[in-house]
Amino acid sequence: MxxxxxxxxxPMQIRFNDVDKFGHVNNTIYFQYYDTAKTEYxxxxxxxxxxxxxxxxxxxxxxxxxxxxxGQARIACRTRVEKIGHKSFTLRQEVFxxxxxxxxxxxxxxxLAFDLTTHSTMxxxxxxxxxxxxxxxxxxxxxx
Length: 144
Prior knowledge:
The structure is a single chain. The chain has helices at 30-45, 126-136, and strands at residues 8-12, 54-65, 75-84, 88-97, 103-115, 120-121. The protein is an alpha+beta fold. The chain has one domain (8-136): Thiol Ester Dehydrase, Chain A. Strands 1, 2, 3, 4, 5 and 6 form a six-stranded antiparallel beta sheet that branches. Strand 5 and strand 6 form a beta hairpin. The longest helix is centred in the N-terminal third of the chain and has 16 residues, at 30-45. The protein is globular, with a radius of gyration of 16 Å. The two termini are 18 Å apart.
């Protein structure tokens, strides 16, 4: 499968408290950047979700730290969906330096659809799947 371009990019602000005594962004902070970017992705791509009835929760997350980020860097986070299952989808996210383009960290997350009224997993609504595939420009559904 060929590499797809990222369509969703969110600038990130490095806050004073993000930087540790060594002058670089602490590795725990990256997950806050990923959370911010994936929330914006979902709001932009699937805007009509009723968040009082459903949620999208992280069930697995892993990150590869490629290079450090210093406090004065200009960074952004790009997000795309890699594949869609029946109840979950997988995200790839990258934090990168806006000026150099250097990737600083790569993250993969499995996101699960969750029904807040029954407190159980649920099938991904077809309108979400269609919206994501339309936005990404490719059918990402796992083939059975």
